[in-house]
Amino acid sequence: MNLSMLLVVIFLVISYDSRAEGQKSAITVTNNFINRTSFPWIHGISNLFTFYQAYRPCQTEFNTTGTCLAKSDCLARNGMAAGACVAGVTVCCDLKFTCGGRTDKNGTIFVNQKYPLADNMTNTCQITIEKQPNVCQLRLDFDEFTLAQPDENGQCTTDSFMIRTSVGERLPILCGENPGQHLYIDVGSGFINSNPVVLSVVTNGAIGGDLERRWRIKINMVPCDSLNMAPSGCLQYFRSPSGTVQSFNYGRLIPNRARYLSNLRYTACIRTEENFCGIKWRTEQPNSFSWGWPVNQSDQTRKNATVLAFAGGHCNSDDYIGIDQATYEDNNPLALDEDRFCGLGLMHHGQVFSRSKPFQLKVRSNNDHRLNGKQSQQGFDLHFTQLPCVL
Ligand SMILES: *[C@@H]1O[C@H](CO)[C@@H](O)[C@H](O)[C@H]1NC(C)=O
Ligand SMILES: *[C@@H]1O[C@H](CO)[C@@H](O)[C@H](O)[C@H]1NC(C)=O
Ligand SMILES: *[C@@H]1O[C@H](CO)[C@@H](O)[C@H](O)[C@H]1NC(C)=O
Ligand SMILES: *[C@@H]1O[C@H](CO)[C@@H](O)[C@H](O)[C@H]1NC(C)=O
Ligand SMILES: *[C@@H]1O[C@H](CO)[C@@H](O)[C@H](O)[C@H]1NC(C)=O
Ligand SMILES: *[C@@H]1O[C@H](CO)[C@@H](O)[C@H](O)[C@H]1NC(C)=O
Ligand SMILES: [Ca+2]
User: Fold this and answer.
1) Model pTM?
2) Whether the CB of 296 sits within 6 Å of ligand 5
3) DSSP string spanning 269-293?
4) Residue 322 and which of 68, 160, 247, 385 are 20 to 30 A apart at CA?
């Protein structure tokens, strides 16, 4: 570059800068990483740089869309530096809603601090959700959710996901693997935002195994007049003629550990479709029901029996799944109704029928997990199909 070209460049920079002074709003916010007082001569060049490089979209090293920002600016906004825009000046910042965040926006996505990387720290990560006016419920969708497994008592003592609200019923504390699960939180009715909801994830060190602690939770606000509102008392709500309901942390067998959680008391509800009168529940796989150890059954009977499926009073002493007035055969007057199911199978053929409305699956577990752990009980993975009314 010869001298005259250099002079032209400098002239352009300075004239650009004086023009830019007129458009203060666009420029001054970006010019925060070079001290104008000590380096007045660099002023114009820095403005030109930041104008072109800051707030420009960029591709992060995880192939997501980021924003070019000064590193300090990125960290101040809870973002993560994921690649460079201009080496040493701006980073490609992945803006995330994570620990310490507060939101009143619909559709906010809450992720772990290092997302999309895993977190292995001891930490308390807490966010606050302030509802918009005329919102009665929140719906949380776990796009990704991996925390440490529950302990031998079925409790979330290593990691725990907790929901704090001042209205509604007590919500279960969750841990383990829950991708694809959802739940509803009552936030009260009315226009006054007096009931912020706090979500917190408490984590303890590395979780070991091949698990990576990571979460991505979508938070939707459900308006009070919406048909999407879950009926009161329903932690989960399924709005389709057929679908799948799994217990929290359902997954592959862990020897001598129960995967499902203890102290559960919640209901999964199915919206009754028009002209449907009954519901069929069946196990998604032949052995995808293992919940509660029936009274007086020894290990020896387990070894002898192909399936240990129990109902009614046999399920009173431990954990059970409640389906009102359910039988093993539809429209068979000789088949007795039962309300509680437990053991290592769901009735005789892994299925039950109910014509009792509303369609609900009640999930109950007590605080004694010893026998459940001994039987390596995994929980349930059940498929439901609504049945048309018989004329
Ligand atoms: C910029 O430099 C001047 C003089 O060196 C100093 O007084 C001032 O505090 C600095 N400003 C910032 C924001 O660092
Ligand atoms: C990002 O995308 C490029 C192609 O667009 C691909 O080669 C690369 O493997 C991707 N990186 C990650 C981390 O997914
Ligand atoms: C946690 O992750 C970092 C990298 O993300 C790694 O350097 C460190 O060794 C990990 N710590 C544990 C205890 O696994
Ligand atoms: C939030 O977004 C969902 C999905 O887009 C929508 O159904 C719902 O009505 C929205 N809630 C509010 C309060 O606008
Ligand atoms: C369980 O066993 C005890 C003693 O062996 C007996 O008294 C009790 O009636 C049994 N309960 C049931 C439901 O069979
Ligand atoms: C289980 O089977 C063995 C022989 O195969 C028999 O001796 C035992 O009595 C059976 N136990 C029960 C509880 O049925
Ligand atoms: Ca139990």
Assistant:
1) 0.77
2) yes
3) EEPPPTTEEEEEEEESSTT-EEB--
4) 160
Say which range, 37-46, 175-184, 324-333, has the weakest mean pLDDT.
Answer: 37-46
Task: Give 302: exposed, middle or buried? Use CB within 10 Å, 0-12, 13-18, 19+.
Answer: middle
258-310 pLDDT, tens digit each: 999 999 999 999 999 999 999 999 999 999 999 999 877 887 777 777 779 99
For 41, residues 6+ apart whose C-beta sits below 8 A from its C-beta are none
Please give the C-alpha separations between residue 24 and each of 20, 29, 45, 285, 329, in angstroms, as whole numbers: 7, 8, 16, 64, 75
Among the bound ligands, the one closest to the CA of 34: 1
Q: Report the pLDDT value the prediction gives residue 6, as an integer from 0 to 100.
A: 45
Supply the residue whose CA is at minimum distance from atom 13 of ligand 2.
62
Give the nearest ligand 5 atom to 314 CA. Answer: 13
Looking at the CA of 82, name the nearest ligand.
2
Sheet bearing 135-146, strands edge to edge:
108-111, 214-223, 135-146, 182-186
Q: Is the pLDDT of residue 383 over 50?
A: yes
Domains delineated in the chain: 3-94 (no CATH), 97-226 (2.60.120.290), 230-391 (2.60.120.290)
